[in-house]
Write a structure and sequence with these properties.
It is a single chain. The protein is α/β, with parallel strands linked by helices and about 325 residues long. About 25% of the residues lie in helices and about 10% in strands. It contains ten helices and eleven strands. The strands form four sheets. It has a five-stranded parallel beta sheet with strand order 2-1-3-5-9, sandwiched between helices. A two-stranded antiparallel ribbon has the order 4-6. A two-stranded antiparallel ribbon has the order 7-8. β7 and β8 form a beta hairpin. The longest helix has 13 residues. The protein starts with a strand and ends in a 17-residue tail after the last helix.
């Protein structure tokens, strides 16, 4: 099988997706890419080349001398000031990153936005967005971004948005393996062109607080064991990701660590219009209900669930440690 070349550039953001990627395990990142037949042309955290060497490599790709199978961009595209892109020059080149990315994207077989910043603008585009940050092919929920809504890489696909803040390392490596085997087709991606291999699930699936959710036994303070949807801002019933069934770093997730899911795989998650740990309500009813449940049904079921809540769940939900374990039922032997 022919080897595939991967080039990874970092733009406006924190580098968190790279930090997450380096935590890939069973197997590790280098072994995974090697076994998949993927060679790293350059990655800012993994490669030795710097300065003029990197510029020569990029120019070689743009000239068509070095083939580029995967262009992976981490971080948002900074178009400011006034569309010049000069808020972010690629170090040592004096050329805006948005120009490098635009030219490289013309040569790539597949272009991947790694993380929600690269996909939709993300944290870098929040508030007043003074840097005019955008995603590669989306600006929030709207198509367009740096490359435009009509862009397709030479492999026939638009930008593949491996969103998340940060991304799970498996989301990145499994998407790359799917593409390197030429098994990536448009119906393998959702409406925001995120890989369905992880967005066909909800963060709610596999959450270890689901018993509390079923009975609407809710946490009221940070650290409480109960469900965080009603009061603490959790969006796990709406967030498209498999965080609680594909755990992080061997066994964790946001909700398992006691923090509400903030739906970081979605466009515009960075602008919740209220605190990330506060559930907005109208007439006492949470605004953010499960995506596929009619509001009237949810209200009716919630009332029934609360009426049937076992006492142990009520008490445990408002505590930071288990107070009452499940009742032990013994069989009656005559």
């Amino acid at each position: 099988m022919a080897r595939a070349n991967l080039l990874w550039l970092q733009s406006g953001g924190c580098g968190g997706c790279t930090m997450s990627l380096l935590n890939a395990e069973r197997p590790d990142l280098v072994s995974t890419l090697e076994n998949a037949g993927i060679d790293i042309l350059w990655h800012p955290s993994l490669s030795e080349q710097t300065g003029a060497e990197v510029q020569a490599l990029l120019e070689s790709v743009i000239a068509g001398e070095t083939p580029l199978d995967f262009l992976c961009i981490e971080g948002s595209m900074l178009r400011g000031p006034a569309g010049t892109g000069r808020f972010h020059l690629l170090g040592g080149t004096g050329i805006p990153m948005i120009q490098w990315v635009s030219k490289l994207a013309e040569k790539a077989r597949y272009t991947l936005a790694i993380g929600s910043c690269a996909a939709f603008g993300g944290i870098s585009s929040s508030s007043d967005n003074i840097t005019d940050a955008t995603g590669l092919q989306f600006e929030g929920e709207l198509r367009g971004g740096l490359l435009g809504s009509d862009y397709k890489a030479s492999g026939g696909l638009p930008v593949v948005n491996v969103s998340g803040c940060p991304t799970h390392p498996d989301w990145v490596t499994e998407t790359l393996m799917q593409l390197v085997l030429d098994e990536g087709h448009e119906d393998d991606f959702d409406a925001f062109f995120r890989p369905r291999l992880y967005t066909d699930q909800l963060v709610h699936h596999g959450c270890n607080r689901n018993e509390y959710y079923e009975y609407k036994a809710s946490a009221e303070e940070p650290g409480d064991l109960g469900c965080m949807m009603e009061h603490m801002g959790c969006l796990g019933t709406q967030a498209h990701a498999d965080c609680n069934s594909r755990l992080w770093n061997g066994g964790g997730s946001c909700t398992r660590a006691g923090h509400a899911c903030i739906n970081c795989t979605a466009p515009e998650f960075e602008e919740p219009r209220q605190s990330f740990v506060e559930t907005p309500k109208i007439a006492g009813i949470p605004v953010g209900l499960p995506t596929d449940m009619p509001k009237a049904w949810f209200v009716a079921l919630a009332s029934l669930s609360k009426a049937a809540t076992p006492e142990r769940l009520k008490e445990n939900a408002r505590s930071d440690h288990l107070i009452y374990p499940p009742t032990l039922h013994k069989k009656n032997h005559k």
